[in-house]
């Protein structure tokens, strides 16, 4: 059988984790998975530094290249045992990737087709820019793959280079070489049983180059222990590359506050997929059959320990609050005590009536209609829609709408848009100017926030939060919530950096 076809069958037969990742990626770009949440935008029209261009596509391509390499290394470790003819091939891992390219090439072709249509019909990007973006995407893929291949060109060796014997010498001195291997402490029986249990697949031809087919050579005359040595050396070399890539990604995550390193959100998803495969494969290379047990025990152990150690306890903070102070009681009896306190009730009622009277005075009407605004969630789209709608309504009614708004409620992105509107309205009244016509506010509220959050999630959230910052004299860990707030404040020109207490008097005055 032709080796690429054999590998494809093997993937569907036993490599289900790999197929799951590819299934998700195909679903994202074909708008069959996560379409309601706009996940296809992250891949088909990636944004970097506020622009969709050659560079944003090149970064997406670079991270896809990292996933393709991780996919090849992971499947190489899983599949190479049932294709022992690979021990006779020069540069076995590189030749393996040639033959394992059906799924990646199919994905790249599908991506290009969907991205071109999406850029043209949804983003209205000119044809010449579309072609340039696709070239950037392909350039990114090739760049990472070339970097990986330069590493494997040095360490990717066949059985002759690893053993130091020629083919004739291996056949002639097989028994004596096995004795040398046994002296090294390796157990031949377990390895031979594994080979016998799995059984090699019969491969007649394979791609020795992307455009050249060659006949597969038999490895039956080689020692099973020597084959094991070949596999072990190649697995370890691949693991060193994976560990280097993992350390690089995590290091970049530590400097995620820099705009330059806030890669497109789609690229961050690919980074997360790559890191997952590389971590699992690295575990297997060093712990063998114990790998999955160790991974599961580690996850359970970290989850348990995280509840006892603050360094590993992932909780969100409201910045400016002292979490080291004695916690207030929040139980039924305490709530009942406050609810039945007549003095507190009377004081709250008096303040509320005074606020309403102040609001009524500000409207200039004897019987004003009280307006309550409720804004729905929906990310940046909801933020922009809520902000723009409130601006339009208030401008049409010459500022009367906002004077009668007493309460604004809502969720998620809608509340961000409403908050931004409230702040701009407050500043305009303080400075006596009109902010409705200033389009920069619409642009600000529409700027990207997801890249920063996605990159922080992919590279940092599974690690202890070692970085911290101070606010109001208290120290808090940096997490994706901190990154989100920093990015939002920068997008909005630091206009939402006030504390709740700063609005106490303006709200009281109506």
What brief labels describe this structure?
single chain; 510 residues; mainly alpha; two-stranded parallel sheet; 23 helices; 6 strands
Descriptive report:
This protein is mainly α and 510 residues long. The protein has a domain at 3-306. Helix content is 64%, strand content 5%. The protein is built from 23 helices and six strands. The strands form three sheets. A two-stranded antiparallel ribbon has the order 1-2. Strands 3-4 form a two-stranded parallel ribbon. Strands 5-6 form a two-stranded antiparallel ribbon. A hairpin with a 2-residue loop joins β5 and β6 (474-477). α21 runs antiparallel to α22. The longest helix has 31 residues, at 224-254. Residues 183-192 and 194-198 have low confidence and may be disordered.
Q: How would the global form be characterised?
A: elongated
Number of strands: 6
Please work out how many helical segments DSSP would assign. Answer: 23
Query: Which oligomerization state do the chains in this entry correspond to?
Result: single chain
Roughly what percent helix? 55-70%
Query: Structural class, judged by helices and strands?
Result: mainly alpha
Gyration radius, to the nearest Å?
31 Å
Distance between the termini: 80 Å
Spell out the helices and strands N to C.
Answer: HHHHHHHHHHHEEHHHHHEHHEHHHEEHH
Main beta sheet strand tally, sense and closure:
2 strands, antiparallel
Q: State mean pLDDT (0 to 100 scale).
A: 81
List the uncertain runs: 183-192, 194-198
């Amino acid at each position: 059988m032709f080796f690429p076809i054999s590998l494809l069958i093997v993937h569907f037969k036993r490599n289900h984790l790999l197929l799951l990742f590819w299934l998700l990626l195909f679903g994202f770009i074909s708008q069959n998975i996560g379409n309601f949440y706009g996940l296809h935008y992250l891949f088909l029209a990636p944004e970097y530094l506020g622009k969709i261009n050659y560079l944003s596509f090149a970064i997406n391509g670079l991270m896809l290249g990292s996933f393709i390499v991780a996919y090849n290394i992971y499947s190489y470790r899983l599949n190479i045992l049932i294709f022992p003819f690979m021990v006779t091939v020069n540069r076995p891992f590189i030749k393996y990737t040639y033959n394992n390219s059906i799924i990646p090439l199919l994905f790249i072709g599908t991506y290009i087709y969907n991205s071109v249509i999406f850029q043209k019909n949804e983003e209205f990007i000119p044809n010449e820019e579309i072609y340039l973006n696709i070239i950037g995407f392909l350039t990114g893929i090739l760049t990472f793959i070339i970097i990986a291949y330069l590493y494997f060109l040095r360490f990717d060796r066949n059985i002759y280079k690893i053993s130091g014997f020629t083919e004739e010498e291996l056949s002639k001195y097989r028994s004596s070489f096995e004795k040398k291997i046994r002296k090294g402490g390796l157990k031949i029986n377990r390895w031979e049983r594994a080979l016998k249990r799995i059984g090699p697949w019969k491969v007649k031809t394979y791609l020795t180059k992307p455009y050249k087919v060659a006949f597969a050579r038999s490895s039956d005359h080689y020692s099973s222990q020597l084959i094991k040595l070949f596999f072990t050396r190649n697995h370890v070399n691949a693991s060193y590359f994976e560990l280097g890539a993992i350390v690089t990604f995590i290091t970049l995550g530590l400097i995620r506050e820099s705009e330059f390193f806030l890669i497109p959100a789609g690229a961050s998803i690919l980074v997360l997929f790559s890191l997952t495969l590389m971590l699992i494969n690295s575990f297997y290379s060093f712990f063998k059959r114990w790998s999955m047990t160790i991974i599961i025990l580690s996850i359970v152990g970290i989850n348990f320990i995280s509840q006892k150690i603050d360094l590993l306890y992932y909780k969100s903070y409201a910045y400016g609050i002292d979490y080291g102070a004695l916690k207030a009681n929040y139980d039924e009896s305490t709530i009942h005590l406050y609810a039945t306190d007549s003095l507190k009730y009377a004081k709250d009622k008096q303040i509320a009536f005074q606020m309403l009277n102040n609001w009524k005075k500000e409207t200039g009407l004897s019987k004003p209609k009280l307006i309550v605004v409720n804004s729905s969630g929906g990310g940046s789209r909801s933020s922009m829609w809520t902000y723009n709608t409130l601006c339009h309504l208030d401008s049409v009614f010459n500022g009367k709408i906002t004077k009668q708004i007493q309460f604004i409620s809502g969720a998620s992105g809608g509340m961000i848009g409403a908050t931004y509107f409230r702040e701009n309205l407050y500043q305009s009244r303080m400075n006596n100017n009109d902010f409705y016509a200033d389009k920069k506010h619409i642009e600000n509220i529409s700027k990207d926030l997801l890249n920063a959050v996605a990159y922080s999630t992919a590279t940092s959230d599974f690690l202890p939060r070692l970085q911290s910052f101070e606010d109001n004299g208290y120290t808090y860990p940096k997490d994706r919530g901190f990154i989100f707030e920093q990015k939002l404040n920068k997008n909005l020109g630091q206009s939402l950096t006030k504390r709740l207490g700063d609005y106490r008097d303006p709200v009281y005055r109506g």
